[in-house]
Amino acid sequence: xxxxxxxxxxxxxxxxxxxxxxxxMLRRHPQIFMPDLKEPVYFASELPRQAHRYQAxxxxxxxxxxxxxxxxxxxxxEASASYLWSHTAAERIAQAQPNxxxxxxxxxxxxxLRSLHLQCVQSHYETEKDLxxxxxxxxxxxxxxxxxxxxxxxxxxxxxxxxxxVEQLRRYHARFPPEQVLVLIYDDFRSDNEGTVxxxxxxxxxxxxxxxxxxxxxxxxxxxxxxxxxxxHAVSVGAGPVSQAAKxxxxxxxxxxxxxxxxxxxxxxxxxxxxxxPDADLMLELRHRFRGEVLALSExxxxxxxxxxxxxxxx
Length: 315
Known about the structure:
Layout: E1 9-13, H1 19-26, E2 32-33, H2 60-65, E3 75-78, H3 89-96, E4 101-106, H4 109-122, H5 131-136, H6 138-142, H7 165-173, E5 181-185, H8 186-191, H9 193-203, E6 222-223, H10 226-237, H11 241-253, H12 256-271, E7 272-273, H13 280-289, H14 291-301, H15 305-308
């Protein structure tokens, strides 16, 4: 093992379940260090390094460098939301850091899949904007067909495979003792941000008596135009020779303090929008479909999620 600082804890997901907000709130604690790169995804070996717009660490040395700035009195952590979905991350984390603390967040399946689909469209993994149609494409995509040309992570489009909560938790419980694994429910975090964060702080054995600043992060949005989003992103980062020339011209004409808010305003007004209300019939169909998973999870966690998530009203 290369010398360096490994994380002491991992927020393993799920995405669209509060992991970004929890990451932002935890990293404000003076006893906690979390790198600016929220999702290194290093331990999910089946996830391509290029599956994000940023450059994920490809080597152990690059990964360890993310935590080099942690002070001796701090614990270090990271928050890769794909680790809960990953079939390899639990084992690889346990091999590298058997004393790690694991935090997972689970969300009601139908609302989770709706938000995940919107995020995939926003991230350009998905081109099918209709969730029902995207779900119907799962089988052909599993066979390698109907994959969007810019989808660097085709597995994420197998939406129903994300809702295997008990199987996912068992991968971690098989490798870590129960006192090292904390499972949170998204509804608790939404209704009591501060209380949930203090619970996590106690789990991590750091001081939980100080003030907790609540944070809203990574809101669910609908994508108006993926093409316009690509143009805004390309100009902002200067990707490609044409975009680099456009960015240089824009920098010469417009100061940075004006340029960044302007690009953000274009994105807010023209690229994204408030999502439409969910399709009630589809949400009901999904709750029928995943009722067995919710029942199994209720038994696994010894908590009545059937009632909490309204599945007692699903005949």
